[in-house]
Design brief:
By secondary structure, this protein is an alpha/beta fold. It is built from 17 helices and 7 strands. It is elongated, with a radius of gyration of 28 Å.
């Protein structure tokens, strides 16, 4: 009868640590592995002397980033690879001897042992589809650019409030055309010197709609402020630079979204997902990038639990109640929540369900989360059956 072995890798940037355990949890190998293809291959060859490929499973505490090369080499060799999250390792550490002490060797052993005990409950990694891999990278970069732009706009508003408050109040800095104004006019003196007619012409040559109305509002605000505020020139220069940065980032985001559209066209599930009200191209791309292989969740309930939108039971003695989950994948949670919120204006069924939850006494956020949880079941069924979304009569909500 063949034995089974459990391999744990504690992933690091310059080097990893590997630990191999047998069925009883006895350590057979524990050593440092340089994060190079040569040393990883040498380590895997050493492991093969202990056990054949069909007699072992491998656990990693990270995916992507510094684990990308290791993960790719393992999957390329046909290994069964599972994710043992860093949070699970940290919590499990307390149950082992010397639990307060952290070391790479100790964590690698914990990863291997947790894999030995819980492998059926752990997500298994699959060889990535090239389009999904690119989608994941682009979605992550788009998210970073968008978050950076939010911070830039907050900073831009603060600068404009300190140099030209009337302009800050007159502009919607989420719009590209009105950001363009800040690159040209950031102080009342410059606006008055330029004048309404010249400012309007400048805006028109750059394709700004309703340029006359926008120029009129800006000049009116400039005429209402004659006092030059402290550090006005420095603040105006910074405001113009930040507005330019926001505009450049918006161009990058637009280019990324165009590429995401191209990638979505190559993924069959994307066409199905996009028929669900509220799931636009960006949310669809984020969902696919984060969820990828739905088979690893096993059911709609497990997907909802992974996203942190399934109620959590708290029971002790005679007391039992359900509460909102505090954990879960933040990206999936945001995708389901935001798409549910958007569906309130796109789907009569969603609107009726939301109103019913509000009548039951739930606040807005609770009602949207309840709707998001219901939509997980719908999305799961759509993808399982390969069917597009079909709106049912509102009475079915």
């Amino acid at each position: 009868m063949s034995r089974f072995f459990w391999v744990g890798f504690d992933v690091g940037k310059a080097s990893h640590w590997v630990c191999v355990l047998d069925e009883e949890g006895e350590r057979l190998l524990s050593r440092r592995v340089e994060a190079t293809e040569t040393d990883i291959h040498a380590t895997l060859a050493e492991i093969e002397k202990l056990c054949a490929p069909g007699e072992r499973m491998v656990g990693l505490d990270l995916t992507g980033g510094p684990a990308t090369l290791l993960e790719a080499l393992l999957l390329d060799r046909g290994e069964r690879v599972f994710r043992v999250s860093g949070i699970a390792v940290n919590r499990a550490r307390e149950a082992y001897v010397g639990g307060e002490r952290k070391s790479d060797a100790g964590d690698a052993q914990i990863i291997a042992d947790q894999l030995r005990l819980r492998w059926k409950q752990l997500p298994e990694m699959r060889p990535p589809d090239e389009h999904l891999a690119e989608l994941r990278v682009l979605v992550s970069h788009r998210r970073d650019l968008s978050q950076d732009n939010v911070r830039r706009i907050v900073r831009l508003r603060a600068l404009l409030s300190g140099v030209f408050p009337g302009l800050e109040a007159a502009l919607d800095l989420r719009k590209q055309s009105q950001l363009l104004v800040v690159t040209k006019v950031a102080t009342p003196a410059v606006a008055r010197q330029l004048g309404e007619a010249r400012l309007s012409r400048w805006l028109k040559t750059r394709g700004v709609r309703k340029a006359d109305d926008l120029a009129r509002r800006i000049i009116m605000a400039a005429k209402g402020q004659r006092l030059e505020l402290p550090a006005a020139r420095a603040k105006a220069t910074l405001a113009a630079e930040i507005a330019s940065e926001v505009l450049r980032a918006k161009e990058q985001i637009a280019a990324l979204e165009a590429r995401l559209e191209e990638l979505l066209a190559t993924i069959p599930q994307a066409a199905i997902i996009r028929t669900l009200p509220g799931m636009g191209p960006c949310l669809t791309a984020e969902f696919l990038a984060e969820a990828s292989d739905l088979g690893r969740f096993g059911s709609a309930d497990r997907l909802a639990a992974a996203a942190g939108i399934a109620p959590v039971l708290r029971a002790s003695g005679a007391s039992a109640h359900q509460r909102r989950a505090k954990r879960g994948n933040r990206v999936l949670k945001r995708v389901f929540y935001q798409s549910a919120f958007c569906s309130l204006t796109a789907s009569e069924v969603s609107k009726v369900f939301y109103k019913r939850k509000r009548q039951e006494g739930k606040v807005h956020k609770q009602a949207v989360i309840a709707l998001a949880r219901r939509r997980v079941n719908v999305l799961w069924a759509m993808l399982r059956d390969g069917r597009m979304y079909e709106e049912q009569p509102s009475s079915a909500a």
